[in-house]
Design brief:
By secondary structure, this protein is an all-alpha fold. Helices cover about 80% and strands about 0% of the residues. The protein is globular, with a radius of gyration of 17 Å.
Amino acid sequence: MKANTLGVDQPTVPLVYAVLNVATVVAGLPSGLLADRIGKDKVLIGTFGLFALSTVASILTTSGVVLAFGIAFIYGLYLGTSDTVQRAVIPSLTAGELKGTAYALYYLLLGACSLVANFFVRHLMGPNFFERSFFLQPRNISCCSRGSDRSHHFVE
């Protein structure tokens, strides 16, 4: 939807989405290698920087087809890196025999929170949902990063 507001015509929107998906795939392996080399926490912090950059760019940009592709690429890098590194952190937070349980809890909480958040935000935002949603993203990431400080040993 943001691509449309930036001037991307409807037939070209799937190409913006394709750029996002390509960036997600491209980011996976290098982010895992980087996390092994310099540490998962450092890469995860950098990932939140990519998210902040894509969010700020989405908020500040009012028109530009090229910018839509750039924002999609940056957001795709965020998705690919965060998915890889967050999953890599889970085993380091749990005892050996409970790793499967930790993954199950992670996906249960992720799915439940996404469902509740999407339902709540959709009804909260009303007709201008897509335009306003970019303003909530920095707050959400801030809350998530503060909450992760307390959850380093959620399964032992």
